[in-house]
Amino acid sequence: MSEGVAEPVTQAQTATEMESIEIDAPRVGIIMGSKSDMDVMEGAAKVLRDAGVRHETRVMSAHREPDVVADYCANARMRGLRVIIAGAGLSAALPGVAAAHTDLPVIGVPLSSRLSAMGGIDAILSVIQMPPGVPVAAVGLDNAANAGHLAVRILHG
């Protein structure tokens, strides 16, 4: 190119530069289907706080508020999130629904419930049995702390 004329910037170059900009936005979104899941999911928040990782926590149901979940996940990257941790019990649809609406890593936390017919095995199977193209990482039953540790590794790996 001639002197004084800048090379055109590609979309990939812009995306790479945007990834390296430090922002004050949360980097991890912690979502759960019910307020009753808050105590268990606090384990992930504690690990993230201890690691100095900004995060946000929201309650949204894949069954009662599917549009809210879809919107949250579809716009997560634009808002600065880099990982989503999704906790859910019983049918445990939230992690899979989240993964269907974002290209960010989604970590599923299967949660036990007094209503569970199988002591939490139903939630575990729901989180790990995703169809091709809808990946969800999974941690152990009620082990939100491990989801926090995995999120830190994804961010700093």
Explain what the structure shows.
The chain is of the alpha/beta class and 157 residues long. The chain has one domain (25-156): 3-Layer(aba) Sandwich (Rossmann fold), CATH 3.40.50. The protein contains 6 helices and 5 strands; from the N terminus they run αβαβαβαβαβα. It has a 5-stranded parallel sheet, sandwiched between helices. Strand 1 (28-32), helix 2 and strand 2 (55-59) form a beta-alpha-beta unit. Helix 2 (38-50) runs parallel beside helix 6 (144-156) and helix 3 packs across helix 4 (94-100).
Shape: globular
Number of strands: 5
CATH architectural arrangement:
3-Layer(aba) Sandwich
The figure for the number of domains is 1
The SSE order reads HEHEHEHEHEH
Mean pLDDT: 91
Radius of gyration, Cα only, in angstroms?
17 Å
Tell me the strand percentage band.
15-25%
Helix content: 25-40%
Indicate the structural class: alpha/beta
The CATH topology is given as: Rossmann fold
Briefly say what this structure is.
By secondary structure, the chain is an alpha/beta fold.
Question: Which labels suit this protein?
Answer:
alpha/beta, 157 residues
Reconstruct the topology from this structure.
Layout: H1 11-20, E1 28-32, H2 38-50, E2 55-59, H3 66-74, E3 83-89, H4 94-100, E4 106-111, H5 121-128, E5 137-138, H6 144-156
